[in-house]
Design goal:
Blueprint lengths: L4 H30 L48 H4 L2 H8 L7 E3 L2 E5 L8 E6 L1 H12 L5 E2 L6 E5 L2 E6 L2 E8 L8 H14 L1
Antiparallel strand pairs: 1-2, 2-3, 3-7, 4-5, 5-6, 6-7
């Protein structure tokens, strides 16, 4: 469609007004996904990397959205489809170094968020296809990933995140903290080892 120059100014203003709401809508979506219950801080750092898709093909079905999920039982394949069972709340709190709310499971992802009264902290767990999608996205963006030896079939570390594949299942764990990311490299690696043992 061809627009005359006289109509472009008004159209541009309407387009700018419409686009101005896009970042707000995106933030609201992230807040609804990760902050369904007040938690111990805000969630600074990288934007959420929730990837489309459902839980992995193996393991029990994921918990209902907005409800805390079961704790891990361990054992091969027993928790592969349940991201909140792959990383317990206690483990997420140990990683973040602060109290977190219960895990909220939504389509292959589990999010633990700190209460608003505490420091910035959020732990996200992506299982199955969402974990693979997150890994592929980081690779596609050219982010530097450091290989980790002896964890599952393969494992990779980057600032604030760890990716692993074990028993054919992908898992990604992302930590959001307003601190130097390298401080959390060792805790992320240790948690990845535990998770690999549960797949």
């Amino acid at each position: 469609m061809v627009h005359t120059r006289g109509r472009t100014g008004s159209g541009d203003r309407r387009r700018r007004r419409a686009l101005a709401g896009v970042p707000v809508a995106a933030l609201l979506l992230l807040a609804l996904q990760g902050c369904q219950e007040p938690a111990a801080g805000d969630a600074g750092g990288k934007p959420s990397a929730t990837a489309p898709g459902g839980a992995g093909a193996e393991g029990p079905p994921a918990a209902s959205p907005g409800r805390p999920s079961a704790s891990p039982t361990g054992g091969a394949g027993g928790t592969a489809g349940d991201p909140c069972a792959l990383v317990t709340r206690a483990e997420a709190e140990r990683l973040a170094g602060t109290a977190l709310g219960p895990g909220r499971d939504l389509e292959g992802t589990c999010t633990y968020v700190a209460p608003a009264s505490g420091p910035t902290a959020q732990v996200e767990v992506f299982a199955g296809e969402p974990g693979k999608n997150y890994y592929d996205a980081e690779r596609g963006l050219g982010h530097e990933l450091k290989p980790l030896e002896g964890i599952g079939d393969e494992a990779w570390l980057e600032d604030g995140s760890v990716f692993l594949r074990a028993s054919g299942q992908w898992v990604a764990i992302r930590l959001v903290r307003n601190e130097e990311p390298s401080r959390f490299d060792r805790p992320l690696e240790e948690l990845a080892r535990k998770v690999a043992g549960r797949l």
